[in-house]
Structure formats: structure tokens, C-alpha cells
Amino acid sequence: MPNRKKWIRYVLYAVEILLLFLLQDTPGLLPQIMGVKPLSVLSAALTIAMVEACTPAMAFGMYAGFLADIGSGAVFGYHALTFGVLCFLLSGLCGTRIQIQLFTSVLMGLWSCAVAVLLDWLALYVAAGYSLTLYALVTKYLPIYFYTLLTIPVCYGLQAWVRKPRVRSAIRRRRSKLHKLQKI
User: Fold this and answer.
1) Distance between CA atoms of 59 and 85, rounded to whole angstroms?
2) Residues 6 or more apart in contact with residue 171 via CB below 8 angstroms
3) For residue 121, how many other CB atoms are within 10 A of its CB?
4) pTM score, two decimals?
5) Shortest CA distance to 69 belongs to which of 81, 51, 87, 54?
6) Residue 167 pLDDT more than 50?
7) Cα three-residue angle 18-67-47, rounded to 5 degrees
8) Could you read off the pLDDT of 120-151 as tens digits, one per residue?
């Protein structure tokens, strides 16, 4: 039974990432702040990585990265590699040292989103040889970073809802125990 629950949770995570990708890349659904939209698939992958083991965290990071590659004009596989490695490292750190709550997930999101966005800027803008690199960092990449940070609590709430024990099953178990006690 626990194995079945794990696979249901993984399917719900995959659907969550897919829905956030559709929300992120559909024009007009999310408001643009300073002309940018958040990387909500990154937020979802990071919050999932904080509570899952290293291998599933890396797989969900790569899945979110492939979706980000589809939505952006980057080299296919770049975001998948970046998100996969970042989620693997974050999962290893959170699995051994940190108790994840909303506050700590935002703190982990501060540095991990910064790493992802700065690597994005370095690899896709600076290394490509474009001019006005600092201008691009300030006007495009930093707003993406801050807007993505705003989506971390929402993604944390979604993954907490997926992971929480179902209330109805707990109530049924309690009722069955009470029923057994009443028979005695």
C-alpha cells in the first residue's frame, strides 16, 4: 500500500508541474511584472526536491527543466540539466540537515532560485557574447528571480496538500476503533 501511495503522489507532482507550466506559458493567464513571468516550474521542482529523496527529486527537476526548455528559446536540455542537478543537491541537503516548513522552504528557495537564474544569465546571455550584460541582469533576470520567489509559498502549499494524510481515512480508522471498543 505505501508503494501505491508513493506512485499516486508522483503522478500528482507530475500533473502539478505540467499545470504550472501551462499556467506559466499561456499568454494572459499570469500577469507580467516588469515584462517577465515567473519560473513556476522551478518553484514546484524545488519544493518537491525539499521533501523527496535524491533520485525522484532529480527526476522531477529534469522533468520541470524539459518543460522549461520547451517554453524558452534555450538549448534543449540546458534547463533539464541545471534543474536536475540543483534539485538533487537540494534534496540531499534537506534530507539530512533541515526540517522543511514554509519558512525554511522560502530560505532554500532564496539561494537555489538565485543559482538557477544566475546560471541562466551566465550561460544564455554572458557566454553568448551579448552586450549590456548588467542591464539585462537588472531588467530581466532579477525580476524573474523575485517573481519566482513569490511562487514558492504557493508551490509549497500544493506539495504539502499532496503529501498530507487524508482526513477521511483517519476519521474512518478512528470510527472503526471506536466501534470495536463499543463491542467489547
Assistant:
1) 10
2) none
3) 20
4) 0.82
5) 81
6) no
7) 65
8) 999 888 888 888 889 989 998 999 999 999 99
The x, y and z cell numbers of residue 5, run together, are 501511495
Q: How far apart are CA 100 and CA 106, in angstroms?
A: 10
Mean pLDDT of the chain: 84
pLDDT for residue 169 = 53
Residue 181 identity (one-letter amino acid) = L
Position 123, amino acid: A
- Which residue in the block uniquely carries the three cell numbers 476519521? 171
Please give the grid coordinates belonging to residue 93. Answer: 541537503
C-alpha cell at position 157: 502549499
Write the DSSP string, the chain. Answer: -HHHHHHHHHHHHHHHHHHHHHHHHSTTTSPPBTTB---HHHHHHHHHHTTS-HHHHHHHHHHHHHHHHHHSSSPTTHHHHHHHHHHHHHHHHHHHT----HHHHHHHHHHHHHHHHHHHHIIIIITTT-S-HHHHIIIIIHHHHHHHHHHHHHHHHHHHHHHSPPHHHHHHHHHHHHHHHHH-
Burial of 145 (C-beta count, 10 Å sphere; 0-12/13-18/19+):
buried
The strand pairing partners of 36, in sequence order, are 33
